[in-house]
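[Q] Does anyone have a clean structure-token version of this?
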Amino acid sequence: MIASFTSFHHANISQPYEAAQQGLRTLKQLDGTPGDKNPNPNAISMTTSQGQLDAVILSNPDDSSSIIQRLSKKSGEVVTSWLDIPKAGNGIPNMTGFEISQSLIGLHGLALSVKESWNASSMGIPSRSYENLLMASNESQNALMRAEAVLASFPAP
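[A] Here you go.
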């Protein structure tokens, strides 16, 4: 399971990337276990301590991965996220994605962004950190429909 984007806010670039890689490995390990109700490869549907988890792992031609995840919490809140994890190369790449929370008060969307900053002691190398940017209502609705379409393509019986 991937971490909530709020844990990425203001974090340097490496910690969220490592957390996402660990989440990806965990989801792949859960796929096909007795608790997984989704027979499709790379699709997980199971009950967790937090609520119902539905996730799909897409492997892209450039060796990157996309994780689309929906967590229906016991509180009634539903958190749907899409995280694109580029393949590591020369340095740690920037991840992109969005997280949409649905509750009684409506939709709340966050887009994952990278902020670069320079200072005199960095010798021309920028420091990078993640920021969560609020999404407009229509952006949140469109992003949610995109994620829901992928999740619906891998239905659990």
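[Q] Thanks! Anything notable?
[A] The chain has a mean pLDDT of 92.
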